[in-house]
Each structure stands twice: as C-alpha cells, then as structure tokens.
Amino acid sequence: MKDGAGRSDAASPFAAAVRFPWELISALALAQLVAWGTLFYAFAIISEAMGRELGWAKAEMSGALSLGLAVTGISAYGVGRWIDRRGGRLLMMTGAVLGAVLLALWSAVTETWQLYAVWAGIGLASAMVLYDPVFAVVARALPGHYRRAITTITLLGGLASTVFIPTTHLLVEMLGWRHALVALALIELPLCAGIPWLLLRGRETGKLPASAHAAHRGVVRRAMRHPTFWLLIVSYVGAALFQTSMLFNLVPMLGELGFTTAEAVAAYACIGPSQVLGRIALLTLERHFTTMVAGLIGTIPPLVGLAVLSLAGPSPVLVFGFAIAFGLGMGVKTIVQATAAPELLGREGYGALQGAILTPVHVAHAVAPFAAALVWQLGGGYELVQQLLILVGAASAVAFVLAVLFAPKHQR
Predict the structure, then answer these.
(1) Dist. CA 301–CA 324, nearest whole Å
(2) Which residues have C-beta within 8 Å of that of residue 121, sequence separation ≥ 6?
(3) Where are the alpha helices (DSSP H) in 39-193?
(4) Is pLDDT at 15 greater than 60 in this prediction?
C-alpha cells in the first residue's frame, strides 16, 4: 500500500535491507489465530452452554465480555509504550500465560462476579496478546516490511472464528463447557506463549536509552496537536460502532427485514472468508493502493451494502452481497487502522501512538452492543438502528478522508 504521495514500501531505505521473514510472520499469524479463537470467539459457544447450566441470562454474561473489551482498551496505551521501550517478546509471552490461567479459572466459576473478574483479567491478557501488540512488535522489528507483515498476520487471524467456533462447539459437546475451557487453555498456552518467546529472541532491539524514551513520550503529544490524530479517532470509533453493532445484531435484524434464520446464518458465515479475501487483495495489490483508497474500501462497501439492504425487500442476493461487502470492509479496515497513523503521522513510537488512538476504539467496541440494544428498544425495531449506523458509517468515511487531507505534507 502506498502512502498519500504514491510511495510504496519499495521506496523505503529499509525495504531491501532485510529479507521478509515469512517463517516468523506465519508463526506469529498462527499464534494470533489461536489467541483470537480462545480468548475472544470461544465466548459465544461457552456462554451459551454455561448459561443453560447455571441459569444465567445472556445479558449478564455479555456484560462480562464488554468489561473485558473495556479493559483491553484502557490497557492499550500502556502496552504500546512498553513495547516501544522494551519490546514485546516477554510481554506477549506473559499475556499468553495469563490468558491460559484465566481460561482454566473460568472453567471453575459458579457466581457471576467470578465471571466478571475472570473477564477483566482476560481483557488485560488480550491487550498483551492480540493484534495491537503483535503489530507494534513487527513495526519495531521490521520497519521496511511492517505493512506486509501486518497484512499477512491478519490473513490467518481472520480465520479464527471459522476455526474455533466449530472447534469449541465440538469440545463442549465432547467434554462439557468446563473441561472444554481447560482444553482451550492447553491449546492456547504453548502456541501463544511459545511462539513469541522462541522466535522473537534476538529479533528485537534491546531496551532503549533514556533519550529515545523521551522522544517516544513526545510522539503522542505532538500527534495530539494535529487534526489528523483526532480525525483518525473519529473515523475508527465510527467504524467500531458500525462493525460491532452489526456483528451482534445481524441475525435478528435480518429476521426483522424478512429473511429466514437459515439465510441470516448463511450470510453471517460469509463474513469471515470475505475478510480474508479483502486482506489477500490488499496484500496482492498493496503497491497500487494509497492510504486514502484503502481507508475508503474499508468503510464504503459496508455502508452502501447496509443502505441498499435497508431500502430493498428481502432478497437473498442482497443479503449475501451485504455480508460479502461487510466482511471485505472489516478485513481491509483492520489493516488500515494498523498502518494509517504511522503513514500519516510518522512511524516513531508506533506502539504508544497506536495505543493512544485505539484506546477509545476498544471502548467503542465494548459499548456498541448495548448502545444498539438501547436504540432498538427506543425505536421499537431495527429501522432506527440501521439509520443511525448509516450516519455513523458515513461520518467515519468523511473523517478518514479529512484525516488524510490534513496530514502533514511531508507524510502525505
């Protein structure tokens, strides 16, 4: 992907300095697939079985997930600064160990407060393990190849739901939900802790000197003085509200629009593969995409798809078209959110800069399901939800365009 001036990674003085480490990046991608599958997507299956056994309402359990997402957001800046200063090898390994321990503790919960405590801890572990820290690690270790590395990692990571939703369901059917969580912990621990611990050894620079610490501390302060920083936050928060609200409400919303449950579930299943296809396209054509174009591809197709779906009648062609457009946008937007800020504001202090920008984004992910539910209740249906999400998606697209246009000229 080129920057706004049309320069690509090939123009970087670092690009030819280091061969792209496919083995390392593929292993980190595998660790991300497992981390997302065990620490995030497994919740949907486990909570269903847990609720049946313990008699807990879905809203009670969803609150624990939202708490975890909020903790992840609050921790993002601190995690990013740590990686900027000390690297991510020890931090990612520690987060994976913590995640495995908490999955095991989750298997023993009998009270709702215990579930909330476990998920607050999982939120912290997720901040140390999932996409953001590994993106910061590769940006630090591979300055000339970080965009290709991020895209490659998200290709495999995007299949986490496709792999772990059925895997978790099978484990629950075979072992029960408590033993299934122990099995997930045993899967997560060696891969998510072992891969960064073994393969990142010697690939990161050591602890930075005090002068570098001071420079990194100033990165966020300087960025905050520029409108591009705040416009990126507006764009990313809007995208988070749009995407998360749709993911948690798509099936019932499609039912209200007249689609059958089978059609809704089949459409939902198209989202994951569509994310991967979008990322493959971006990886293949990265030298031909400007930051502006990539950002709009991540925003516009889901927005247009929802608008057409809301206005037209229940057509299977439209619902599958929307699912594909939505997944395509999600897949590309993940990469854009990992690369646009360093492209537009500078690559120094990547971890701290990304942490500062993504903290409110994680919080938006946490509140989106409840906000959508509240709007649904106030409107007496999903029509008002759809209208507001279209406005939010449009605002996200406009904010991103302005962020690129207002970026410092030497960056664009």
Answers:
(1) 9
(2) 98, 102, 105
(3) 42-54, 58-86, 89-106, 112-129, 131-141, 146-157, 160-175, 177-188
(4) no
Closest CA to 37 of 102, 127, 126: 126
pLDDT at site 407: 85
Asked whether the beta carbons of 99 and 129 are under 8 A apart, the reply is yes
First to last CA, the chain: 13
Dihedral pair phi/psi, residue 376, rounded to 5° = -60, -45
- Judged by DSSP in three states, 346 sits in coil
Alpha-carbon span 73 to 94, nearest angstrom: 18
Contact 195, 30 (CB under 8 A): yes
Half-sphere exposure of 93 (CA within 13 A, CB side): 11
Residues 34-61, mean pLDDT to the nearest whole number: 87
Domains, the chain, in order of start with CATH, read 12-208 (1.20.1250.20), 218-405 (1.20.1250.20)
d(CA 399, CA 336): 14
Structure tokens at 83: 């990686």
Highest mean pLDDT (candidates 249-253, 303-307, 346-350, 399-403)? 399-403
What letter does residue 10 receive in the DSSP assignment? G
- The one-character DSSP state at 11 is G
Q: Element (H or E) spanning 371, and its range? A: helix 350-379
Round to whole Å and give the CA distance between 73 and 250. 24
What's the rounded Cα separation, in Å, for the pair 405 and 412?
Answer: 8
Residues 139, 14: contact at Cβ < 8 Å? no
pLDDT of amino acid 18: 56
Question: What single-letter DSSP state applies at residue 207?
Answer: P
Residues whose CB falls within 8 Å of the CB of residue 357, separated by 6 or more in sequence, listed in order: 229, 232, 233, 236, 341
Residue pLDDT, tens place only, 236-265: 999 999 988 887 777 788 888 888 777 777
- Could you tell me the sign of the dihedral formed by the alpha carbons of 193, 363, 111, 41, in that order? negative
CA distance 366 to 314: 30
Tell me: the pLDDT tens digits for 302-329?
888 888 877 766 677 888 888 889 888 8
Summarised one tens digit per residue, pLDDT across range 170-185 is 999 999 999 999 999 9
Q: Smallest Cα–Cα separation from 252: which of 384, 377, 381, 368?
A: 381
